Amino acid sequence: MYRLFFIILNFLAPITLNAEKSDSMITINKERLFKDINYLTSISPARNYSNIGSLNSAAEYIFKEFRKVTDRVEYQKFYVDSIEYKNIIASFGPDYGVRIIIGAHYDVCGNQPGADDNASGVAGLLEIARLLAENQSALKYRIDIVAYTLEEPPFFSSKHMGSYIHASSLKNAGVKIKEMICLEMLGYFSVQKHSQEYPLNLLRLFYPDKGNFIAIVGKLGQGKLVRKVKHYMKRNIRIKVCTLIAPEWIPGIDFSDHLNYWKMGYKAVMITDTGFYRNTNYHCNTDTIDTLDFDKMAEVVKGIYMTVVTLAQ
Predict the structure, then answer these.
(1) Beta-strand pair 177-184/142-148
(2) Which long-range contacts (CB under 8 A, 24 or more apart) does 247-251 make?
(3) Number of H helices, E strands in the chain
(4) pLDDT value of position 26
(5) In sequence order, what are the residues at sequence separation of 6 or more whose Cβ sits closer than 8 angstroms to the Cβ of residue 190?
(6) Among candidate residues 148, 208, 205, 183, the one with its CA nearest the CA of residue 273
(7) What are the backbone dihedrals phi and psi of residue 144, each rounded to the nearest 5 degrees, phi first?
(8) Confidence of residue 29 (pLDDT cuts 50, 70, 90)
(9) For residues 102 and 182, what is the distance between their CA atoms, to the nearest angstrom?
(10) Looking at per-residue confidence, does 275 or 6 come out higher?
(11) Local confidence band at 163 (pLDDT 50, 70, 90 cut-offs)
(12) CA 131 vs CA 6, 146, 199, 292, 302: distances in Å
């Protein structure tokens, strides 16, 4: 029993790196983050799998925003029960060679606005795309930014997920991926005591009880990538960054699109505010834009952008 305890502790304890802060002058436009989330959460009826018109409205908005900063934008269309669904892919950097994938899903679960889950992740994608367009001449690797559909139930963990379609298409084409970064809920934070929950009580001993940090989550065997992403994020943002490297059977470890890249043998991490372990509005009609902290979200997006640029050089 004690041996198991120390094995788990070794795997799950937060990783600390003493990274020097960067003097980066990159500024994230909070007004654009708000505008993007406001549009997505205003789509009615909700952008779930059964409301195809709403999903198409979201997809068209994302496509047009990508197209403002790059000509290399495409829909990846696929069918489920004879209904057409769409991923949207924008590319930066070299046309060929090893790629870095940054992804987030734009659909919601049920009839709710999905501000944090996951309009916040999509807004992060769009802002990162705008910044990459200004600096892509320095990129050594191709960066594909992908907005997925059908992440939510009833398709989660199935071959119908948009991220499964994308990841499997890369695998089948023999595309080499340096790493994949999944953006899953980036905007909800709390300074209240006991606002942060965990999948295992053991984790309470090592992690904050306030939901005022951003988390980088990876699976066993990919700790190097998790540590690297944390290192670059800590250099560039002013909020706490925690990591979790754990077996896939720990609840929450694979609760987003990165799981499909794991299935295809690619390295991937999830960056998240921890979802329902913190945000009581998760999958509820109270997941609205007014519950988000745009100051902290902007810091997170800045950290992700700086991380991606560093990885791509």
Answers:
(1) unpaired
(2) 247/11, 247/219, 247/220, 248/219, 248/220, 250/12, 250/199, 250/200, 251/199
(3) 8, 8
(4) 86
(5) 196, 210, 211, 212, 278
(6) 183
(7) -105, 125
(8) very high
(9) 6
(10) 275
(11) very high
(12) 43, 15, 35, 22, 10
When pLDDT is cut at 50, 70 and 90, the band that residue 24 belongs to is low
**218: which strand partners?**
245
Domain that holds residue 69: 2-15+24-311
Q: pLDDT for 222-274, tens place per residue?
A: 999 999 999 999 999 999 999 999 999 999 999 999 999 999 999 999 999 99
Check which CATH number belongs to the domain holding 188 and give it: 3.40.630.10
Residue type, 72: R
Residue type, 271: I
Q: Is the pLDDT of residue 21 over 50?
A: no
Q: Identify the pLDDT of residue 7.
A: 39
Q: Which amino acid is at 258?
A: H
pTM of the model: 0.93
- Among all chains, which residue has been given the structure tokens 């892919």? 89
Domains in the chain, number: 1
